[in-house]
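From the pipeline queue, job 12 of 40. The input is one protein chain; the requested action is below.

Action: predict structure.
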Amino acid sequence: MTFAEFLQQVGGMGRFQFLHTALLVVPVLLMASHNLLQNFTAAIPGHHCRVHVTANGSGHPNATHLLEASDLLKVGIPVDRNQQLEKCRRFVDTQWQLLDPNSTEANKTEMTTEPCADGWVYDRTLYSSTIIIEWDLVCDLRKLRQMAQSIYMAGVLVGALVLGGLSDRFGRKALVIWSFLQMAVMGTCAAFSPNFLSYCIFRFLSGMALSGFGLSIACLIVEWIPTQYRTITIACTGFGYTLGQILLAGLAYAIPDWRMLQLAVSVPFFFFLLYSWWFAESARWLLLAGKSGTAVKVLQRVARVNGKQQAGAEITTEVLLSNMEKELSSTKSSYTFSDLVRTPAIRRISCCLCLVWFSVSFSYYGLAMDLQNFGVSIYLIQVIFGAVDFPAKVVVTITMSYLGRRVSLMSFLILGGLVIIANIFVPPELQTLRTSLAVIGKGGLAAAFNCVFLFTTELYPTPIRQTGLGFGSTMARVGGIVAPLAKMTEDYFSFLPPIVYGAAPIISGIVAFFLPETLNVPLPDTIEEVESRSGKKKREVPAHEKILLQSQEKPLFKEAC
């Protein structure tokens, strides 16, 4: 018997699988909230220098009376070429003559300005409190806003490297519990940060925790789901992340204070921690770790929940080991990262996927973390950006099944890149058109994300599938780190960030042409099989595939997560 047959024996897709998966998906809702949280906690409100009032020597008759706020700004703050108040400069001396409509240009020549020495005044109409307001991260310090997001994404990367390895050593359930605790504590600490440095440290540790439970949850879901239900289950998990983006907009609208919003998305992890003890450890991992006795107990527990007590009682340590001996022995070979570049076909696949993963994440977060740039309600655009993922994921599922993985990936990457670049030529006044193009671009990148995830698992052979997927995921996190930093280039050329965000997916879309198609092609089991396929002429394949996408006849431990 294979492990898939043991899963069927204890109930297949039964009550346990539905309940277990549902409880694991709930925390996924808040993954998007933490990834995109700085759209709201670090939102930049309207601001200008605190006005410095000097003695009135203009002789203006009304200067001694109380001034309206607009008059005070007129004499204290210069305007830019768009006739908007300067955000980072003020007059050294109050320009009282500007209140006199009869003043001549000669009287306006000596208007020396200086930086905001006394701080800033913020418009709190939309945002009552953000880290920008609290720590004055504007003007010369505005780059720290992007730096904070990059530090968080660096934590996500480090978490994948550190906690991902610990998951293989100590088990999926243990890492989920630890990551929930770390997220709850570090997220709460971030809400009470006394300064910007401590905020960045706590956000970095929160990013590590998010990566830890994200990877372990994916493994626990996949390893308890029968093969034929994995595609739809993973799709539903992805929809949970999408729903979380919409949830974030509602939370941010209801909670305008950044500290309370940070708490609102962190405290629920204490609740997740309480019920996480009910989770079942992966029986696959237990077998690989040599804990066959515990694996039997877990399988029997699953059988009881699914109403298959008698079938569960028939599973003993001896039965399990005797039937799984072949699969266990096949997993003992050692494979390393070098196997991703050792042979020609695998090396080409790795190089192409490296660029694709980086570009998709780079442009996705470049768009998703710049909501204030579209000139419409930040809450509305967050809802729209989240909602567009639903049709995008449905469409890409269909195109992958009928047009193939390669064509779908190329099309959505190039589409996303083109509309991002097209937005450069749309005047700021046409907000509806600018927003529509951005939504299309974000939808295209979301679809490409789904496509490259499945494509990667089908391109790599079983022994290095997890290594290849981990490599791609690492490159995606590097893209997430670089994306906020690329935004800083707008200080030199305002059109540079959208060009970079648009060019990256276009180039990677072209590179994706060199990947082999996997539609209706069996999953490769060995590196030699991939190499032999690359040397053969492509065979004709049927024109369509069931929406169930890829199915695998036998379960393989290395493909588990």
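Job complete. The first strand starts at residue 47 and ends at 49.
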